[in-house]
Amino acid sequence: MTKKLRVGVIGAGIAARHMIGYDWNKDLFEVPVLCSLDEDRGRELCAKHGIPEYTQNADELLARDDLDVIDVSTPPDSHFELCKKGIESGKHVICEKPLFGSIADVDEMSRIVARSNGRKLMPIFQYRYGSGLQKLKRLIELGLTGRPFMTTIETHWWRGPAYYEVPWRGKWKSELGGGLLGHAIHAHDMLNYVHGACAEVFAYGATLVNKIEVEDTMALAVKMQNGSLATLSMTLGSRKEISRLRFCFHDLVAESILEPYTMGRDPWTFIAGTEEHQKRIDDALAGYEPTEDGYTRQFELFHQAIIDGKEPPVTLQDARNSLELVTAAYYSQRTGKPTPMPITAEHPLYRSWLPEEERRMAASA
Q: What is the Cα 25 distance to its own chain's centre?
């Protein structure tokens, strides 16, 4: 019989989406307790998903010896400490994006995990598991795409003033960044998932849509380590919300649907350069067996990794790749210069990309 992993959830916002993933994997997970400082939302989530215990004390939840996994679904500025406590308490950890507020934090967490006697930490990048993107990965693995040339990614969403009435949003100290970090990061992870790490970025950024501290519009030009190029655009000022991913290879073009929050899903289009190659592609995709996607699939793969003692499906290095792009883009925006990657300990923004004033305020708080 498959071992169920017992999960303690911290948070009641995005945690509602996580609970759907656990509900679809009831043979793999159970959630006996949820912690949230927002009692109304916390108790409502418990009632909706049959969670028997509610608490506002995260330390007590972390100290329990009947939990296998801690699910961190809180605002970004609390992620590092909760993940650290979770790993050091002997639990595996799942953490929402953006993972942490610096490359230094990711590297420190890698050291914490390495000395934890087999505990695993999995960042959330659930968009990877849409059937459209998985089909592209299959074609790459089969050698049917040819050499990559160009990728274009658009994250054009709408966030008006009401969105920022939540106190922690729109502020460097608590949200850690704007649309580049909190909204476009999923699409940009898909870039890394397909092509590997980035090599260099030049970025323009601005706050154009709302009266907030952080950016809500950015344009990036990227060199990939595999030699291809990419252009990435993000705005929270698009009245028609779309997400679009378009990958140009020597032998085909792959393009996503425009649905802003499920752009990894079918139906993607795969157009080859010749009729003969189109048939090869169509034949290869005819054998594709769809699975569940989103959180459901990522949690399923996480369970398998824990049982098998293997690396989780999304790793700390994956999160580092995405946060390196964020760090380099902020540095390029502020300096007006192309910024190479990887980001090492000698980089000025290695320990924090917060503006200097906000960095001092955070340190003294």
A: 21
Quick one: tokens of 314?
């999304």
Instruction: DSSP for 46-95, please give it.
Output: HHHHT--EEES-HHHHHH-SS-SEEEE-S-GGGHHHHHHHHHHTT-EEEE
**pTM tops 0.90, yes or no:** yes
Q: Is 34 left (phi over 0), alpha (psi -120 to 50) or beta?
A: beta
| Element counts in the chain: helices (H) and strands (E) | 13, 14
pLDDT tens, residue by residue, 160-201: 999 999 999 999 999 999 999 999 999 999 999 999 999 999
In contact, 103 and 320? CB cutoff 8 Å: yes
Tokens matching residue 234: 């993000």
**Angle subtended by helix axes 185-195 and 316-335, to nearest 10:** 110
Is 198 in contact with 328 (CB distance < 8 Å)?
A: yes
Q: For the purposes of burial, counting CB atoms within 10 Å of the CB of 263, is it exposed (0-12), middle (13-18) or buried (19 or more)?
A: buried
Q: How far apart are CA 336 and CA 329, in angstroms?
A: 10
